[in-house]
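Quick one, probably user error.
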């Protein structure tokens, strides 16, 4: 299993913010490690009209492209003016992680270098009847 620091570094390595007009690409990056031990990364794409997507979505898409679905651990990072910050997944990302595979309700979500929580505690009352 990758350490928290290693996963944070993998995400930080793909941070390359780029402006195209009034749009900003790649200012948030995500890295995840699967149950098989493979690491996938992605960056956000902010576009008009809500057609963009979060960094977690990009990392998960890379994972699914490789035919993996179970996330052991995931992190997102943003480079502020003063330091690199671990940022929590938004509600849409939390639900997206859960819907990729039911086992992902136990995914460890990094909330800082030394702080994490299982996804199900960040997405309470999400069970629907079968």
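Nope, works fine. Designed sequence:
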């Amino acid at each position: 299993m990758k350490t928290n620091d290693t996963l944070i570094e993998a995400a930080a390595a793909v941070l390359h913010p780029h402006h195209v007009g009034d749009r900003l690409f790649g200012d948030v990056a995500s890295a995840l490690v699967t149950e098989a031990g493979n690491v996938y990364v992605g960056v956000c794409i902010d576009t008009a009209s809500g057609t963009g997507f979060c960094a977690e979505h990009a990392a998960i898409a890379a994972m699914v492209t490789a035919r993996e679905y179970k996330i052991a651990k995931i992190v997102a990072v943003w480079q502020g003016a003063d330091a690199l910050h671990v940022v929590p997944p938004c509600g849409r990302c939390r639900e997206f992680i859960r819907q990729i595979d039911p086992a992902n309700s136990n995914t460890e979500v990094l909330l800082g270098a030394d702080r994490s929580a299982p996804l199900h505690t960040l997405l309470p009352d999400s069970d629907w009847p079968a």
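The helical segments are 4-12, 55-65, 91-100, 119-122.
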